[in-house]
Predict the 3D structure of the following.
Amino acid sequence: MKKLFLFFLFYLVQFDLSAQTYQIASTDTLPKTVLLLEKRVFEIENNLYQSKKQLKTGIFVATLGYSVTIVGGQLLGSNPKLGETLLYVGGGIGISGTVILVKGFKKISVRPPGPPI
């Protein structure tokens, strides 16, 4: 009976030691995981930084264009030729500003998120 007890005790200790060596081997991937996370954070920050300028430009151009459109609408009563021209030019500028905005938003979401780490 003692031999059987010692055998089970030895078997459990051996199993316990193998579990510990597995944990030590898995910690080798920790630096790789940290480096991967740092790389992903850098990519996200870089995309946000690059798109910030484009988004500001798009907002400015769109605001300018739609302001010109409003001025053109106001001038339709007193100077219809100039008012109509300003309506078309302002609309074109506003649409191009909106296109710049859309391109800026596309830079923020370059790709779908990857699998969890």
About this structure: The CA atoms of residues 45 and 108 lie 9 Å apart.
